[in-house]
Amino acid sequence: MLNWIIIGIGDIATRRVIPAIQAESRSCLHGVVTRDPAKAAPYATRVWQTLDEALTDPEVQAVYVGTPVFLHAPQSIQSLRAGKHVLCEKPMAMSEAEARSMLNVAEQSEKTLGVAYYRRCYPKVQRAKKLLAAGAIGQPVVAELTSHSWFDGTGSRSWLVDPAKAGGGPLFDIASHRIDVLNFLFGQPLRVTAQLSNAVHHYAVEDNATVMIEYAGGVRGIVDVRWHSKVSRDECRIRGTDGEMELSPLNGPDLIYPGARESLPPHANLHYPMLQNFVDAVEGKAPLLASGASSYWTDWVTERARNSIRS
């Protein structure tokens, strides 16, 4: 049994991660770290107000880091050094340098470091990867992913527009997932260019970002994310020399490619397959799909996207 503690009881932790731990037969919710113990009351488990206190418990084996981005690296590193496995929310860190530090400490500690890029576990994304490798659309040449929504920077997620806490706007929050999907499908990114701006909202982070990534074999990935659209979009399509593959909406079940249409819905709890894969990896039964090593490359892209507008 893998004893988990949760740092940060936010929306994702309560709706997805804690239910996933409770449903996973080899996992146990051992405790919660929160400055507000009342938030932990529904779970009838141990409560600590600081991570320092929680990590002194020898029964703690795995840590889910669900705090704002600026805490990901320090809390993950502290947990790894304490000999715990770590599953960190995305994006991995505030910078490429922080992400690299997390990797180094994970290697030194010989503990598992995963990042919550759960779309790698989607059945249709897994299937798309196999179809692309089999030549279903010929040679892939361009992949386009968009995520558009409206976010005015207020409410319970207002920290997302504070660059000191979030690192950036939609580039960090929603582009990171799409960049990771591209890296999963096409491998290590080679070059990055981007445009970031504030077209509608004038908070301290960008309200839109367009990122172009070059991959080996001539594949170009384009990720366009916006927090100023009242028309929601969640598009993913890949074009090749012999046809195209449609995965829109990315969070839906449909996968369309030349000559076929498949329905491959994700799990009802999007975090459950990822957590199950993490436990498999800890037990040595399967490779970790969203590892620190693979997730580092999303931070690599994000950093170059930010820097490209300064050069």
Indicate the topology.
Elements: E1 2-7, H1 11-23, E2 27-33, E3 46-48, H2 51-54, E4 62-65, H3 72-81, E5 85-88, H4 96-109, E6 113-115, H5 123-133, E7 140-150, H6 163-166, H7 170-173, H8 175-186, E8 191-197, E9 208-214, E10 220-226, E11 228-240, E12 243-246, E13 254-257, E14 260-263, H9 272-282, H10 292-308
Parallel strand pairs: 1-2, 1-4, 2-3, 4-5, 5-6, 7-10
Antiparallel strand pairs: 7-11, 8-9, 9-10, 11-12, 13-14
Helix pairs in contact: 1-9, 3-4, 4-10, 5-8, 8-10
Task: Explain what you see.
By secondary structure, the chain is α/β, with parallel strands linked by helices. The protein has 2 domains: 2-116, 3-Layer(aba) Sandwich (Rossmann fold), CATH 3.40.50.720; 123-266, Dihydrodipicolinate Reductase, domain 2, CATH 3.30.360. It has 10 helices and 14 strands. It has helices at 11-23, 51-54, 72-81, 96-109, 123-133, 163-166, 170-173, 175-186, 272-282, 292-308; strands spanning 2-7, 27-33, 46-48, 62-65, 85-88, 113-115, 140-150, 191-197, 208-214, 220-226, 228-240, 243-246, 254-257, 260-263. It has a 6-stranded parallel sheet, sandwiched between helices. Strand 5 (85-88), helix 4 (96-109) and strand 6 form a beta-alpha-beta unit. Helix 3 (72-81) runs parallel beside helix 4 (96-109), helix 4 (96-109) runs antiparallel to helix 10 (292-308) and helix 5 (123-133) packs parallel to helix 8. The protein is globular. The relative contact order is 0.16. The model has no long low-confidence stretch (mean pLDDT 96).
